[in-house]
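Write out the bound-state structure for adenosine-5'-triphosphate.
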Amino acid sequence: MSPDTLQPAAAATRSPSAGDEVPAVDILSAEKTYPNGTRALLPVDLSLREGEFVTLLGPSGCGKSTLLKMIAGLLEPSDGRLLLWRKPVAELAQTGRKMAFVFQSPTLMPWATVRSNVRLPLDLAGVPRAEAEARVSEVLALVGLAKFDQALPRALSGGMQMRVSIARGLVTEPDLLLMDEPFGALDEITRHKLDAELLELWRKKKLTVIFVTHSIHEAVFLSSRVVMMAARPGRVVEQFQIDEPHPRTADFLVSPQFAVHARQLQDSLLRASHEEDHP
Ligand SMILES: Nc1ncnc2c1ncn2[C@@H]1O[C@H](COP(=O)(O)OP(=O)(O)OP(=O)(O)O)[C@@H](O)[C@H]1O
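---
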């Protein structure tokens, strides 16, 4: 085992929360069995420091989305607990922190302009119009869509629609960004471009990100840590630190270090898939 690899047992000790630092996310033996009896997740123990970019990677059905939805408070665990800045997910507001969720599909209102789509969370929160407009302008500039603020979603490419969705997530100024395969439906080149932009946003805004993907390359490029999961039943099997410097450019993608990490994840993914075939 390489020094970069954390044993699942080490992950269970959740050392990041041991010191003074308040962990952004603490998952304490959280598990999920759906009402139809499907054991989607065995107990998961995982802790995230503020500012980490953690990717959940694993074969189809290993519970990535289930875990992300539990962290978002969209699903209740069957047992165990999930804390955000040491408070239960439902009490996040008391921590003064905010969370946003970006789905795989941009889910934009087709009849509304880009500007109105991005402003929606602020309108729902009752933010005064002038302040809301200023914040919308700022995030649209951040994702490179300032000139398209009056466009309707159908006039935009898939990649641009995804940028609108990300802008809508960022407009509330979240501390924690949860992303469920946000670029999975995009072509390879657009995906790389958005990956690079997302990494810049993460650095600029000092976000904590949990990102679900099927792509080993995306996981290596983006992550500070990769959590490998296996299916039937879903569980965390291994973790990998990707301690490579930033900014990560296109050169990183063709570097020997990138290839080493990709190989490790490839082997781990094969092991995870094998466990599923021979539980
Ligand atoms: N609402 C539900 N009711 C019953 N079973 C469900 C439900 N949602 C998901 N499952 C099952 O739970 C398991 C984990 O699903 P989940 O969608 O979390 O996995 P995933 O790793 O995100 O999959 P994928 O990579 O294909 O998106 C799967 O066996 C799935 O069929």
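---
The pocket of adenosine-5'-triphosphate is lined by residues 34, 36, 38, 40, 58, 60-66, 234 (CB under 6 Å).
Confidence is low (pLDDT under 50) at residues 1-18.
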